[in-house]
User: Which sequence fits this backbone?
């Protein structure tokens, strides 16, 4: 029997219609992001053919310039969004400075066009992360001001996961019709998990408290280590299966590696909306007042009980 399906666009329209003052601009903005990520996804699928069709930086058999995928993804998002009149600030992990547009766009958008791009060459999952704010004179707003955040994971299937502050929903691309369909309604992160996700290669550089915490997990013998090295893939697994993800400070990187505006804030918003928790040092990352667009910050996020356990371990 025919089962009713909900597309991403229908879902966003429905959500926006709950606000009487809504103008439709949010739905339009999300649709532009959706379209861009579908194009990025289709290019990623051809990534392995670059050697056959032409080296990056050169020209392919069609005499087209072959761009690096992260550059391509960035340029595509910038072009689509800057011609929309919906956003007046565009900030990208790939751009040194935000683009300030002279229009009446209501939104400011931050994105990491292709996160985990060092994994492209080996066919490992990568993703796009985005974070949307209402436009304000100062584009450096706290993460708690986000109106929406999401990510797209380009994995064995392509999934679009987002929150606009009333839960988290996941949509899987049906390549035969080219639409994202609601496949994971109201995602709730399990309260506990049996997976920890950290780059343990940095173990000797971690603070003693982090080392002790990791050692305590090993002693429990119930935990598995899973670390893809693409934040989107590691968070996606943590969101669905539970567990904890850590990219803490280390002796070389006192502020950690991940970026507050492009990675930490959107992922913290999503994980919190799914019932999980996030912590940056001992602070709530969403309450950090940013001082620069590319600011880095340590981050630990995941299942609520796993974060509580982590906090009591590092405080003891
Ligand atoms: P990128 O934005 O340059 O791709 O770097 C971010 C990535 C994250 O996806 C991932 O969590 C992290 O870097 C992995 O870093 P490391 O390999 O140092 O653990
Ligand atoms: Mg990144």
Assistant:
């Amino acid at each position: 029997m025919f089962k009713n399906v909900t597309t991403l666009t229908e879902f966003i329209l429905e959500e926006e219609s709950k606000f009487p003052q809504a103008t439709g601009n949010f739905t339009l903005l999300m649709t532009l992001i959706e379209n861009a990520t579908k194009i990025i996804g289709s290019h990623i699928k051809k990534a392995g053919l670059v050697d056959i069709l032409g080296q990056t930086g050169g020209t392919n058999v069609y005499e087209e310039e072959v761009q690096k995928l992260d550059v391509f993804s960035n340029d595509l998002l910038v072009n689509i969004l800057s011609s929309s009149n919906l956003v007046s600030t565009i900030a990208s992990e790939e751009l040194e400075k935000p683009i300030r547009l002279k229009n009446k766009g209501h939104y400011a958008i931050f994105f990491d066009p292709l996160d985990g791009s060092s994994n492209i060459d080996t066919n490992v999952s990568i993703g796009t992360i985005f974070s949307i704010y209402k436009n304000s004179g100062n584009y450096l707003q706290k993460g708690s001001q986000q109106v929406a955040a999401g990510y797209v994971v380009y994995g064995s299937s392509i999934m679009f996961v987002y929150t606009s502050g009333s839960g988290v929903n996941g949509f899987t691309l049906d390549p035969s019709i080219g639409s994202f369909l609601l496949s994971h309604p109201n995602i709730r992160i399990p309260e506990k998990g049996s997976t920890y996700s950290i780059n343990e290669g940095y173990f000797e550089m971690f603070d003693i408290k982090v080392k002790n915490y990791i050692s305590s997990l090993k002693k429990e013998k119930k935990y598995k280590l899973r670390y893809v090295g693409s934040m989107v893939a590691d968070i996606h697994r943590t969101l669905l299966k539970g567990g904890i993800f850590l990219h803490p400070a280390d002796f070389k990187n006192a502020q950690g590696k991940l970026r507050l505006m492009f990675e930490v804030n959107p992922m913290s918003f999503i994980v919190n909306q799914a019932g999980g928790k996030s912590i940056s040092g001992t602070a709530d990352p969403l309450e950090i007042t940013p001082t620069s667009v590319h600011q880095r910050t340590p981050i630990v996020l995941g299942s609520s009980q796993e974060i509580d356990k982590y906090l009591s371990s590092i405080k003891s």
